[in-house]
Design a protein that fits this description.
- 18% of the residues are buried.
- The longest helix has 42 residues.
- It contains 16 helices and 2 strands.
- It is an all-alpha fold and 359 residues long.
- Helix content is 56%, strand content 1%.
- About 13% of the residues have low confidence.
Length: 359
């Protein structure tokens, strides 16, 4: 991480601003930036304590970037982050930052827009992000917050026998008031039913992925960098539902994956994208759909975070529309060249100007 930042500093014109403090640029934004400074100071005070130990991820090198210095981030054509993980990990630190991200809301969609805007401002002050990346970034923070709250539940719920004890022993990364509201929800019947239902569903999972913390989108990007060709979702799905040696995680999943492999025809192999194009395979035509059925709304198997079936249908539709347009453009170019050639012939023969011929 430090090497990557140093390399960018060497190539970035903004490096001339080294050692500048993060200060308010105007009175209009002073209150907002002062809130941000509290976050930076809180992180920086813990850097020395964590420097010599392998603790939780806090990314002090990113939080400590010089004023005006930003890290570049790569996104693919589906608006998924496919860098080396810095932005995703940083979103995780934001989700665990009590000064920024509240714990009291049961659903990320209920978090006030003003709070989300503040989070977005902090993240885009560290990374070079365009406005169209905002939805992905905030959704990533929401996902990280959900994971963080689950980890708190696992760590603390059975540690204390009563709600009062639990309230009296908040995690150091949380605000005491928000902690109290969070743990009260843990004791509610609604939360317990939801937790047990999720636990039961997970216990019946027979085909877990083996991609770890690296998203499918980043896996596909790594394959592209390595081979110069972008794999379709079937390739990624098959590869990361097995161990590195190709063996199956569970014997129950072997038959299903083998069916998908059998349906991975030569035609589907040709659908893999070249370096210049990203072809979106219609979902209802690929092997995963034929074996596992349609994807649920809001996610697509083997495609990674923030991809929905409707999104891919739109991409495929636009691409199908583009093909006739390309052919039409080629025909227009040919006809234009022919007209120009005929105009030149008439001009030379009759001595008329090109304008007169056009009339």
């Amino acid at each position: 991480m430090l090497k990557r930042i140093q390399k960018q500093r060497d190539n970035d014109a903004a490096s001339s601003q080294a050692h500048k403090k993060r200060l308010p640029e105007s009175n209009e934004n002073s209150h907002e930036l002062s809130n941000h400074e509290e976050v930076y100071e809180d992180v920086n005070t813990n850097i020395e304590k964590s420097r010599n130990t392998r603790g939780r991820t806090i990314l002090p090198d990113i939080w400590g970037l010089d004023h005006g210095e930003k890290l570049t981030v790569k996104f693919n054509s589906l608006n998924q982050c496919v860098d080396d993980g810095e932005l995703e990990y940083f979103c995780g630190t934001v989700a665990r930052k009590k000064e920024l991200t509240p714990l009291e809301f049961s659903d990320w969609r209920k978090v006030p827009a003003t709070t989300k805007d503040k989070i977005w401002d902090v993240i885009k002050s560290m990374f070079d992000l365009t406005p169209n990346r905002k939805q992905w970034v905030l959704s990533e923070v929401g996902k990280c917050l959900r994971i963080f709250k689950h980890s708190l539940y696992v760590e603390y719920f059975n540690k204390y026998s009563t709600l009062a004890e639990l309230k009296a022993n908040p995690d150091s990364r949380t605000d005491p008031n928000q902690w109290g509201k969070l743990v009260e929800k843990w004791y509610s019947a609604q939360w317990q039913n939801k937790y047990e239902r999720g636990k039961d569903i997970r216990s019946h999972m027979k085909m877990p992925h083996t991609s770890g913390t690296i998203s499918y989108a980043r896996r596909a990007e790594a394959e592209f960098r390595k081979n110069g060709r972008r794999p379709n979702r079937i390739k990624i799905f098959l590869k990361y539902h097995k161990h590195k040696d190709g063996s199956h995680v569970y014997s129950e999943s072997a038959a299903t994956l083998e069916k998908i492999e059998q349906l991975l025809t030569v035609d589907e192999e040709k659908r893999e994208t070249s370096e210049a194009n990203e072809v979106i395979v219609p979902l209802k035509e690929d092997a995963i759909y034929k074996v596992l059925g349609p994807d649920k709304n809001g996610r697509v198997r083997g495609m990674g975070f923030k991809i929905s079936p409707k999104m891919l249908e739109k991409e495929a539709s636009e691409e199908n529309m583009n093909e006739p347009n390309k052919e039409l453009a080629q025909q227009v170019a040919i006809l234009t060249a022919q007209v120009k050639k005929l105009t030149d012939i008439v001009t030379r023969r009759d001595g008329a100007t090109a304008e007169e011929v056009a009339i």
